[in-house]
Amino acid sequence: MIVTPSRVQSLNYFKMKHLGISGGGTKIAGLFGVAESIIYDRKYVPEIISGISAGAILALPLALGKREEIKRQVLNISLDDFFEVSPIQKNGKIKTLNAVWKLIRGKHYLGDQKNLEKTLANTVSRAEFEAYITDKTKAICVVGSVDFYTGARLYINLKTVSYENFLKFVNASASIPIFTPGIAMNGPIKDFEDETVAFAKLLLFDGGVRDHSPTNKIISSDNPGFQVTETTSIFSRPDDIREIISPKDFAPGNLLNILERYVEISNAEISKNDEAQEKSTIQRKGIVDHGTFYLPRIMQGVYDVDKTRLLELYEAAKKLVNDDTWENSNAMV
Fold this sequence. Notes:
Elements: E1 13-21, H1 28-41, E2 48-52, H2 54-63, H3 67-75, H4 96-104, H5 114-123, H6 126-134, E3 140-147, E4 153-157, H7 163-173, E5 183-186, E6 189-190, E7 196-197, E8 201-206, H8 215-219, E9 226-235, H9 242-245, H10 255-285, E10 288-294, H11 307-318
């Protein structure tokens, strides 16, 4: 993706196109499929890309135009791309002995997600990141996480942080509680609106704990540097929420089943609220809404890395952005 200098004059944008990408675990292949179609087929070039969890992982590579690299990664994603110590086996079952050992040692997590930072570093080098910070033609990327000491939402502008903290903030945004450890950091820090968050210490987890989609947080900002005039959102859930809350596919066979079902139901309920708030803000502020896109239910679990299903989801997602779904009217509700 290339944002030409004639369209972007400074980091303090006063009119901005926005793309918001929700969380979704390994549904990242579908989230990318929609984003790819929006950017490359619809020629919608956002000046700001916001993301939570899987959306946070995608944000900066999308802003840097790494289309082919992202596609290869999301279609071939493995547990090793996330975990140094995976909480689950390749067959999808929880590692029982590992879980027992963690409990005995008093740990608050089942796995270790350090490998995600290595994966991110292999995708975006230090040199590329440092060039991005000062490149006024590249979209601002904002990622969301939640501090477990205070419960506060933290949305960070990646153009304002160090390379090391870029890796940490994105990892934090994708760190699902219980499955993975939180990301410990010291305060104070600045949020995306340049407001100082003065907490002495933070333990950052998945932004999906409070927001499944980042869009409303961004478009509701009254900061003059983030005045969104056009927006579009991608949700990893199906449009019909009954596809999630229906009991037909659920069996409480083990701890992993319960944990994943908990995440799924929580995200569905948070997602509905996010969508309603987003539409209300769009109407109130007269923002051009290019539509909301939802993924079909194909993947089986938060950490499903089956290659056949990843490709199926990606291809299904690519077909979602068409003439019937891409809206051009103002304040669509």
